[in-house]
Amino acid sequence: MSDARARGETFEYAGATVELVDATTVLAAARVNPVELLRRASWPSPVQRVDLTVSSADRDGGPVHTFAASISTADEPLSKERIRKLVLGNDPVGLLLAKRIEAGDPIATRIVDGVGAAAAAAYRRLGLDRPDKPAASRQAGTIADAVVGLQATVTYDESGTVVRLSAEVARDEVTPAHLQAFVGLTLQAVLELTGPDALTGRRYVVSRENISTTPATTKTVTLDMVGGLTKEVNELREIAVSFRHPDSMARWGAQRPQGILMYGPPGTGKTMLSRALANEIGADFREIRTPEILDKWLGGSERNIKQIFRDARRYRVPTLMLFDEFDSIISYAGSGGDAASQAINAVAGIFKQEMNDLIEANPNVIVVATTNFPHRVDDSLIRSGRFDVKLSIPKPDEASRAEIFRKMIRQLIAAHEAPGFQMFADDLDLTALAAASHGMTGADIKEVLRRVQLAKAMQDARSGGRVDPISQEELLASVRDLAGR
Ligand SMILES: Nc1ncnc2c1ncn2[C@@H]1O[C@H](COP(=O)(O)OP(=O)(O)OP(=O)(O)O)[C@@H](O)[C@H]1O
Ligand SMILES: [Mg+2]
Known about the structure:
Blueprint: E1 9-13, E2 16-20, H1 23-30, E3 35-37, E4 47-59, E5 62-73, H2 80-87, H3 95-102, H4 106-112, H5 117-125, H6 135-139, E6 153-156, E7 162-170, H7 176-194, E8 203-206, H8 230-244, H9 246-251, E9 259-263, H10 270-281, E10 284-288, H11 290-293, H12 300-313, E11 319-323, H13 326-329, H14 339-361, E12 365-371, H15 379-382, E13 389-392, H16 398-416, H17 430-436, H18 442-463, H19 472-483
Parallel strand pairs: 2-8, 9-12, 9-13, 10-11, 11-12
Antiparallel strand pairs: 1-2, 3-4, 4-5, 5-7, 6-7
Helix pairs in contact: 3-4, 8-10, 12-14, 16-17, 16-18, 18-19
């Protein structure tokens, strides 16, 4: 049986089934770009649309995830009275919660429980005492764990046709349960506008939306998407933690790693890991490509590299600089003596010096260099202090290939499957795929999938949409095809 299908957490709310797909990825991606959810769902009247956005922001106390929902209703304005009921005076959580608590709704109770003033006010209005058991002991092991403490503010716009909910959770503390809680709150607000049974029998899928609406740019690559490489990914996570907590570093006089060298065969995920690390840190990503440096004019390359580092010393926000294919930019050409190799050596010397200066001058910058040929890179360039973390990124073993298949297929499902459209068959055997793809890298596996997708799309185009989901046999055939076996 396939575990590729990331049928995430499913929960029932007010008769509706809600499915949260890949909530961890949603949260990780939201650090970099706002993630929009639920936009294409359909809603009972008078609700027209709901936009739920997860994004991130910097607050004095540190970075936070922000959850925002706006519920738009029919053009005809709702009565102020109805809206006012939603917001219960100035009380942020509002009457909608109060009513739900009164009705014994467990989610509402959990959300309000422990949220401080708002909850107290809501309970008071209902003439209830706060629950006697402390919140902590009531949630053990349930989805409510992280729900407690999620406080949503409810506001409405002038016209009275849009209701907005918002909530924030510290980045270090945010979990899928917060997302679930916020979705629950949003549905409560919807319910309040539509009437008690309006959601019964409906199904909502909360997942990152289609490629066509949110392009799957490199910006959205996260460490969670990397298959295998557990040790390496963990090491990068640690580095990210050190970057997100400059205060702790300063307190102990610790210096966080600022130079990482990744080496290994093509297509094993080095560039992907760099981008994912930038996202994990919440850093800007600056890729330096060979043509940016190498210049055929005398002195041009030196000037370019100096300029790149001059800029880097001024970066105010955490920035990851990627020197991809490092060996082609920076290597000693030996003592050949012709102008070209002298120029290359000069570039390498300047790089070395600039890298030292940069690390002294700007703790916000992290430099990642990747190469397929570590032996071509001069030792003095990568000696400790400049690149203090060296990661070998090997080809994936069988278990890792299974994981890469699983993660890629999950992503495709999350991005493309929709009600009435199943992309992959239910009986995929990832173990068999992993065994068949011996010697392949992550990039190869991506290509295997790309080919099958294209073949299916063409079949679809010719037959007018009557095409079966991608089967195990089709995947195996594509693996054999790519391997030339
Ligand atoms: N371990 C992995 N897990 C998930 N996807 C992977 C993995 N390795 C590679 N990929 C996929 O393959 C694509 C290409 O990998 P990437 O460009 O990161 O390889 P690379 O190591 O930088 O290769 P090169 O040395 O040729 O630059 C990635 O964008 C990703 O989709
Ligand atoms: Mg690369």
